Amino acid sequence: MEGISTFGWITIFAVLSAVINAVGIYAVYKNKEWAQQAKAYVMCFAAGVLISVPLLLAFPEAIEKNSCAGFAALAGFLFIFFSNKAIQHKTKQKTLAFGITAVEGIAIHSFMDGIIYTVTFSSSIYVGFLTGIGLVIHEFAEGVIIFSVLLAAGIQARKAVIYALCAASLTTPLGAFLAYPFIAHLQDSFLGLLLGFVVGVLIYISASHLLPEAAGHQKKHSFVALLAGVMLAFIIVTIEMI
User: Across the chain, how many H-helices and E-strands are there?
Assistant: First the structure.
């Protein structure tokens, strides 16, 4: 991993996220049945990574930088919880309104993914790399979801592709690049608080978003995909500790 700057890694993962998200959108646009079938496995694997990395690596790193990181983690969890509640409250309207608010929620979520890349890579290349793996993988499923929601809202397929790309793909690099100038020069103590906040967000996303969505589309051996994600994170964390 040496030889690539922090900003270089942020750029690689932010752009890769946008590309994988676009692949998910294109996959469901061309072959809805296959994309929906693959979504459950992708989400289970991503959930396994995104549950393991915060607990095994990111949270200990945050505590090391700032002993109050636990409070920040709780704040991050509650922030994303109430944000989702506010969005869900607005979806009690008609179908098109549901589509608009769902896209709004995914756009905010994708923008935060970009910020998460900047915070985690600024803290540690290994923390950023492991977190990035989980986030990049779940981008495929997110692309499938946002396009499907737009179709259900009655939006024409070609327009849905454009709207989905703008809301879910491009927002991640945008969030990463806008956050970098503010985060790059922060002191370790404040960076620890931000990393703790990100841990709370990641745990909420994996436990309350990815896993229930995957369970709703349960496939045979999907639990194996979850364990594979956990094992990947565990192996890389173990290698880093040696």
Answer: 11, 0
Residue with the larger pLDDT of the pair 200 and 35 = 200
Give the highest mean pLDDT range of 2-6, 124-128, 157-161, 167-171: 167-171
Q: Does residue 235 contact residue 61 with C-beta atoms inside 8 Å?
A: no
Q: Token pair of 147, please?
A: 């396009």
Please give the single-letter amino acid code of residue 98. F
Contact 134, 12 (CB under 8 A): no
DSSP label at 217? T
- Phi/psi-derived region of residue 155, left when phi > 0, alpha when psi is between -120 and 50, beta in every other case: beta
Distance of CA 138 to the CA centre of its chain: 6
Q: What is the pLDDT of residues 77-101, one digit of tens each?
A: 998 888 777 766 665 544 555 556 5
Enumerate the H helices of 165-217 as residue ranges: 171-183, 188-205, 211-216
Distances (CA, A) of 221 to 121, 214, 217: 33, 12, 12
- Condensed to tens digits (0 to 9), the pLDDT of residues 11-63 reads 999 999 999 999 989 988 888 777 767 777 777 877 787 788 788 888 988 89
CA–CA separation, 229 and 226 (whole Å): 5
Please state, as a whole number, how many other Cβ atoms lie within 10 Å of the Cβ of residue 166.
12
Distance CA(58)–CA(77), nearest Å, equals 15
Q: Which residue, 27, 56, 57, 58, is CA-closest to 42?
A: 27
Answer yes or no: are the C-beta atoms of 53 and 130 closer than 8 Å: yes
Q: Hunting for tokens 């590309």 — which residue is that?
A: 19
What pLDDT was estimated at residue 145? 74
Model pTM score: 0.71
